[in-house]
From TrEMBL, chain A:
<keyword id="KW-0560">Oxidoreductase</keyword>
<keyword id="KW-0786">Thiamine pyrophosphate</keyword>
<dbReference type="InterPro" id="IPR033248">
    <property type="entry name" value="Transketolase_C"/>
</dbReference>
<dbReference type="InterPro" id="IPR005475">
    <property type="entry name" value="Transketolase-like_Pyr-bd"/>
</dbReference>
<keyword id="KW-0670">Pyruvate</keyword>
<protein>
    <recommendedName>
        <fullName>Pyruvate dehydrogenase E1 component subunit beta</fullName>
        <ecNumber>1.2.4.1</ecNumber>
    </recommendedName>
</protein>
<dbReference type="InterPro" id="IPR027110">
    <property type="entry name" value="PDHB_mito-type"/>
</dbReference>
<comment type="function">
    <text>The pyruvate dehydrogenase complex catalyzes the overall conversion of pyruvate to acetyl-CoA and CO2.</text>
</comment>
<dbReference type="Pfam" id="PF02780">
    <property type="entry name" value="Transketolase_C"/>
</dbReference>
From TrEMBL, chain B:
<comment type="similarity">
    <text>Belongs to the BCKDHA family.</text>
</comment>
<protein>
    <recommendedName>
        <fullName>2-oxoisovalerate dehydrogenase subunit alpha</fullName>
        <ecNumber>1.2.4.4</ecNumber>
    </recommendedName>
</protein>
<dbReference type="InterPro" id="IPR050771">
    <property type="entry name" value="Alpha-ketoacid_DH_E1_comp"/>
</dbReference>
<dbReference type="GO" id="GO:0003863">
    <property type="term" value="F:branched-chain 2-oxo acid dehydrogenase activity"/>
</dbReference>
<comment type="function">
    <text>The branched-chain alpha-keto dehydrogenase complex catalyzes the overall conversion of alpha-keto acids to acyl-CoA and CO(2). It contains multiple copies of three enzymatic components: branched-chain alpha-keto acid decarboxylase (E1), lipoamide acyltransferase (E2) and lipoamide dehydrogenase (E3).</text>
</comment>
<keyword id="KW-0786">Thiamine pyrophosphate</keyword>
<feature type="domain" description="Dehydrogenase E1 component">
    <location>
        <begin position="65"/>
        <end position="363"/>
    </location>
</feature>
<dbReference type="Pfam" id="PF00676">
    <property type="entry name" value="E1_dh"/>
</dbReference>
<dbReference type="InterPro" id="IPR001017">
    <property type="entry name" value="DH_E1"/>
</dbReference>
Amino acid sequence: MLRIVHKLRCGFAKMTVREAINSAMAQEIERDQNVFLIGEEVGQYQGAYKVSKGLYDRFGKSRIWDTPITEAGFTGLSVGAAMYGLKPIVEFMTFNFAMQAIDHVINSAAKLHYMSAGGLKTSIVFRGINGAAAAVAAQHSQCFAAWYSQVPGLIVLSPYDCDDARGLLKAAVRNPNPVVFLENEIMYNEAFEVPDNVMDKDYLIPIGKAKIMREGKDVTIVTFSKMVKFSMLAAAELEREGISCEVINLRTLKPLDRNTVIESIKKTHRVVTVEEGWGQCGIGAEICSIINETNAFFHLDAPVVRVTGADIPTPYAFNLEELSFPKTHNIVEAVKLVLK
Amino acid sequence: MKHFMRFSKISKAFKEVPSQYVYQINPIQNFEQIKQFRVIDLEGNLIAKEYNNIPKETLNQIFDLMLTIEEMDNILYMSQRQGKISFYMTSFGETATTVGTTAALQPQDFIFPQYREQGSFMWRGFTIEQIVNQCIGNHLDGGKGRQMPVHYGSKDLNIVTVSSPLTTQVPQASGAGYGFRVNGENKIAATWFGEGAASEGDFHSAMNFAQTLKCQTLFLCRNNHYAISTPTDDQFKGDTIAGKAPAYGMRTLKIDGNDLLAVYNGVKYAREEIIKNKEPFFIEFITYRIGDHSTSDHSVLYRSQEEIDSWKSGNNPINRLGLFLKKQGLRQFNDEHDNQIRKDVKNRVIAALKHGSEQQSPSIHDLFTDVYDEVLPHLQDQYTQLREHLTKYKDQYPINKFKGGL
């Protein structure tokens, strides 16, 4: 997989997020013989979204497990395997289908360590696409960030770019806790320049630490996953109007890095949260509450503005779908609102 | 007195597991393989003469529809490649199962589809235009532009809307079938699913419930040999899916799914038995998916063209029915006439695509309706916000393309 990374100049390479995830999995499967990938179409079909391309040919069917169609079946099986010392990477074709297996993720993987007083461990990574893609309507477009990040016992990660994808996935595999890893189908094709150190087989990103993508002084934008892209575009547009935005890429949703958010607020005094998912009980709602509970509240010059998806099952028709999710101009509008 | 009566009620419900014994260890793995019911052979010759009982008119209508669906699927598959629709699923090679089954059911029977049953929809009257408008997602779509292509439904035609997560429709059919029995209705719930979908946990619960609670449900499995790229040998072991049904206590038929007469007769028999006995019935159709899983698939990556061609020419439902009709003198075949049928369908689909693409998109008001039975206040607020936003930025949006504008 590293062969197809394009060398741009000394110290950098260009790769897509898909390649980043693929290379991270390949390195971890190579490194630890207990690690395996399991899911529908992950092996000989090279992955429903080609994320596991080449892995079956390289590692064979003992490390890349194709399964019959049953999320409940292969998730339950993987949780059991994890309890007895293997390290599964469970791929859901989409987290929308993971609902058929959610009991295994929550009632088993997440809670067993606590319930067994530390006796049962489930070192397991659940990964797959999350949130909206394009023209796939209600049952393929839900964002599960809020649902999973509420559950004690789970670590919830959501990468944006190649750096995030590689560092967070490798950290997730090596972490002894169950991890929910929320990817994004649209981001799979996005290419980024990647410094050599990110390609290192031991490149890890700390879990529980957000990243400041862009420093600013007028407004803090808190976001994650694909919305980081639109937030950065909004920040660039606002810069031209003399407004300086600080963009925070959360990276980890649970445990959420409240300190980075608080420190930023002390500087900017205004906050906009951006998420694709529904507003009620969402990540933005959690950020608002965190601010409210800490001394960050007293640094605010205006109430927090949340930008979220519309409170509806996602429609299919192009015009309706476009209006259901935040875009760059919605974020620009929100920043201007919080500054008024 | 009360305590005594309560105790005897409990005893009645208890039924001891039947006790018979053997005195040697002899595990069982396979029961005798269930054979496929067939009426005509691969060349359309009539073998099981007593099942040659379908009215000539019905047979011709079925044949016409199978040709129509083949042409329509061809055009719509290509139209996805041309960017006119975003997604499509063809049913090449499987229309004897869907059209034959639906012709043998009654109009009041509920159908719970999977996603490859355009045959069921169209037999009951769903039109080419309705299909095309749904795939495009314009304002004429009966589904208000809410669903991905091929996810249609019709309350009028008693066909439940297609839903993406696999197999969820199957326990739903058990539930509906239960309701029909309890209310004494002359109705069954017929549910479709592929052999891959039968791996899901929902299938097993649905089967167990249907037989144990006695539901008027007909289980219809399209075993087309592939679930995306997964061949049947990697999906399950045992005597295909039909082999599992008797274990639930259910009456079972395995039918040659490319034999229209076998399909029709088998389903007609099953329906009568369900209504008579008030118990479910299971049918597995053995067929073959000649086309790709969907427009997102390229099946020659995992199977050979020779394999596909051997079914396409050697065991093709349209060819077999056509040869039967010809040999029995039930249809006049002439090249010019048949080509005209195909040409007419092709033109109709193309016209529907053109007309459909010129239509406006669904109304923005329908963004917020049907979330609940009425538009709740928080949604009314969001609709107001949306209209304000669109008014303010009207030159950024193609509002003239939205039905009803702002």
